[in-house]
Amino acid sequence: MDLFFDTFTNATSMLADPAVLLAIALGAILGSVAGAIPGMTTTLAVGIALPFTFGLRPITAVAFLIAITVGTNYGNSIPAILVGVPGTPSAVLTALDGYKLHQKGQSGVALGTQYIAALLGQLISAFFFVAMVVPLAQLLYVFLAPELWALQLLGIVAIISLTGKNVVKGLVAGALGLAVTMIGPDPVALTGRFTFGIVELRGGLEIVPVVIGALAISELIRSCRQVYDWRQSSGGFSAKFPSFGLARRILRPIGIGTVWGTIMGAIPGGGGVSSAFVAYQQAKLTSKKPEEYGEGSVEGLAANESAQNASQSGEMVPTFGFGIPGSGSMVLLLAALTVHGMVPGPLLVKETPEMLYASTAGLIGGTLVLALIGWPLAKAMLRLVQLDRSVVLVMALLLSMVGVYALRNAVFDVGVMIFFGLVGYFMLRYGYSVAAFALAVTLGHDFEGYLRHGILLTDNSFGTFMSRPVTAILVALSIGLLIFGIAGNIREARRAKAALAISGDALVLVGPQPGAQEPGERVARVEDLGGTALREHEPDQRRERGSDDKT
């Protein structure tokens, strides 16, 4: 309990530091601007900003990055409400109800509801974050190398099992990430490995260029290939607080959204999108007017906004408590902590509690900054939606290159970032988990070090290493998660096969009878759907893909 109150006391005192306060204000504003630009995801925004934080004190850097994530979660909803284009994927449901309210001439009510729900969800969940992470960290203080290795294994497996559609591809991505960290000096013998005679590889690959490339640049490349349905805002608007009666009505969905957002955010891979959908559905089930959901419901808007903003604090619970990031942006935060000399995981809160204070200051301070400037920024952010996206994306790439170059004044690092950006893009395109790859890269050095030091600690006996109770439990949980993920993949494959069979039956039922066939025409059979019948449609699919590529 003392640490709980100490956290808020120290976080408040940090807000009195001019440098920290300026960093938080700048982060919240930049995050809001980035969130309002479609294609600029939270991960991409943090990735661009990350290299510019290495000249700052660690507490200032962490507070700045956290404030950026707070800002993007707020800013992504402005274009969703006013032009129906969500700034980030988590604001999809905001566009569903918010834009319809705007079309009805109730843009002020929509913006006011979004403002209240976002700020309350963020502030309340900040208290949940501290309340959950403090006892977790105290519980894990006794962990030694074997337990820390098993905990990191659980984190990597959790990301693989809970975020990817294919566990096998996730394992390949994780293994590739661990292989990247083996380039350079051995953590125990300190001899060089896999350098291939390249001087720049003698010290290993820098974490930041690899992770920014895999997570941020890959998103940038994917954004270049996306097409958005731009809509013009229908007239002017002004944000205003909802009436007292309406404010009372949205308190219940805000509570539902905050609770579910925090819970779902704390599950690795849950994130803002899942949080928003779960909270939206739960609010609809308990609403007195469920028929309004999807047609311009302030309740649905409030539940979604509070959930996606609360998920930010939820994602930080496993990040700071276990060293297991809850999202791609949290992987980048772990990378920042690592580069600043911190050890991600349960030792972080024990050895450097100021990082917990800084993150709490970033959450609360960023929210308070947005409370002051959120409405004035709305019109400015609307104009950002109508900018030429090619200019925005090129500027984002240039900023990333400048930031990575500034780390060590090395062009080699820029090349590494671009290379792994291409690797990450193709991983995304073919269904491999980029998050698992990036997490393995971030934790890889410590992961191998904990394993080898743990075996030395147990007299070179892997059996003794695995027989430690906590280690055995964590490894068993990792195996269980893998089985759970594989079973889920099998179920999905069976459902897809069943759906394909049903669609095949429908083709047979509605298709022409054999006696009524035109010359050269052929009836599709169920067994043909996996072969010839599908191949007959491939030219059309190729043409569609080609047109997509041209756009």
From TrEMBL:
Top-rank taxon: Bacteria
Keywords linked to the UniProt accession: Membrane, Transmembrane, Transmembrane helix
Membrane-spanning segments: 20-37, 44-71, 77-96, 108-133, 139-160, 167-184, 204-221, 258-280, 322-343, 355-378, 390-407, 419-445, 465-487
Ranges for region Disordered: 527-551
The keyword RNA-binding appears for this protein: no
Residue ranges of every copy of the DUF112 domain listed in the record: 21-437
InterPro entries: DUF112_TM
PANTHER family on file: TRICARBOXYLIC TRANSPORT PROTEIN
Name recorded for this polypeptide: C4-dicarboxylate ABC transporter permease
The organism of origin for this protein: Phytohabitans suffuscus
Organism phylogeny: Bacteria, Bacillati, Actinomycetota, Actinomycetes, Micromonosporales
